[in-house]
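hey so i finally got around to running both of the ones u sent me last week. sorry it took forever, my laptop kept dying halfway thru and i had to restart like 3 times lol. anyway pasting them below in the order u listed, first the sequence line then the structure token line for each. didnt double check formatting much so if smth looks off just lmk and ill redo it

first one:
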Amino acid sequence: MATAADRAKGPARTSVWLEGKAARPRRTDQPAGLDLEKITAATVRLLDSEGLSKFSMRRLAAGLGVTAMSVYWYVDTKDDLLELALDSVMGELSVPALEDTGQWREQLRQLASGYRGLLVQHPWVSPLIGEFLNIGPHSMVFSTAVQRVMRSSGLPLRGQTGGLSAVFQFVYGFGTVEGHFRDRCRRAGMSQDEYFRQAMGTISEQPGLRETFEEAQDVMDARGGDTVEEMRERDFRFALDLLIAGIEAKRELS
């Protein structure tokens, strides 16, 4: 357990957005065209192409054609840069116009679907969301939107954080698994359908797993969909409809 002395020597990191690091002026002796926006964009591209485990400041600098020290003038640590990259992709999320509070169901579906798409498109996002405070400008726009939509649902105040958790923790888990599966297929050089068929075929041939597999076959058949993406889309929409129905039921009972 860390002692008070340990904490005083190495205080816990808060956020790049709280420590005045996100708006540092450019030095005139730095390579032409290099700035924090360009570095952040290159970080996102590298994370998308190679993943979080292979990301390093040295690889980033090499891709930019500069030294690692040039990058470190703009950010103090790799974590600062990862936090900036995380908020950058949060800016890809579309936020609905919230004037019509009667459209909360459609607005909630839009926000949930957008969040899922972000997690799928950028598999490195999911582990970082738990690492940082997520208080960058783009993250706060999204957070404000989901809170306002939940307020307009009619749930009592005491239940609104639970409603948000039910929807967005579900989306987080669904999108994380989906994104990692797609990434695994890509790395294996296979389509999702090819990977799925191979995996299911292998499972069905294992004596210890065959009974469970066969027991679930009627559920899988009833699931519908000819492709992995179609099956997954049906599951997501149905699950989200269940959650919205639950919100409506709790609202009526309040």
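and the second one:
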Amino acid sequence: MLLNIDLPPEAPPPSVAPDAAASPRREDGGDAPPAERRSSAAERPPLAGLPVLRLIRPLAVLALLAMILGRMLAPAMVGLAVGIERAAHAIELAGAGASQLFAIGAIVIAMALIGAVVRSRAPYALRIAAIVAGSFVILVVLHATAQRVPDLSAALIGVSAAILALGSAWDALRIPFMRPVAAALGLVGASALVRLTGVFLAVWANDRGSKALAGATSSVATAAFALDALAVLVATVALGARREARPRDAEPPRPRDAEPPRPRLVSPLSLAALALSLLVTRAALAGAADDASMIEALFRRALDRLLTRPAPVVPLSMQLFVGALSVVVVALALIAPPRLPVLGGALALLLVARSAPEVPLNALSLLIAALCVALAARDERGFWAAVLATEREGTSSASRAPESRTSPGARQVDASDDTR
């Protein structure tokens, strides 16, 4: 089964005699001590049983490139200035290529993840939802490579991916280290369902010419935007999970059944994301002026591509800020992922799909993020294997550092900071 992780074997209990045939032999005929057997098994790479999950971060990088180049920059550069037609065409081709590569890789990885979820210990309802929703989304994405997807099919894949996201988030909330990413996934799924309801009401109001339905559409769109903004903020908080590995002797002893470290509400990485988003939003707001520079106008046009429809009853500055923050968080989640790298890729994919789940590639991104969260929630041994591997790497690098960088005083300060 893909979720089985190779960990160092535990010593047999005193009442059970070790198997002589299974233990390695020394050259002089004696058995190897248990410490040597543990060290040889501990050298195996962690997460060796999850090769598919190692591809999530590269896939998320492709999704980010496809979103920035194909969805934001390429349309924003059309008619922006005189003499940039070649650059705009090159960026359009690069975005199209990234989108095609992402579609091919995402389809293959989604099929592998569906098989892994079916063979996992996930609830039966979640397994059935993964098969039904995943197969439907993959078929529609394959259809979209040849011709335009009908509006009904686009709405159904958005609903299918959102329902699977809600189910995976509900199952993953029971795991402490999964709660920030699971909460963001659940909020994105709920926002997608509410937004698609608003689209249905908008079409219905347009057909009937009803002002009451138009007002209800604005209210539903505002609720969807509130859930979407909350999901982006939760994802920003998820960036505060501790990523650094401290030497083992600099940490206080942790009980065996202790919970993993919880993310901090405020961290340097989350503060950097908020500050950078504020600067981008300010430049985008200045891009609407007549005397705006080309960079400011480019920011404004690019962020306009991330605005949701129907339009919520929210100030435009807030909508631009949420769009900018989502892109920044996606980039930071890929550069500095949490201790389990697959969570960084899943966080990036669900934020890529947040504003338009009815688009085939976005629905596929949300589907893969939901499947990754479902697998990671059922793989607690894999999480702790990744954590221990990170700590071992940090300990070995600290032992090779100069004495001035690993003085006792510095370690005491490190341990006190970690305790606080």
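quick thing i noticed on the 2nd:
Residues 1-24, 31-49, 242-253, 401-420 have pLDDT under 50 and may be disordered.
anyway thats it, ttyl
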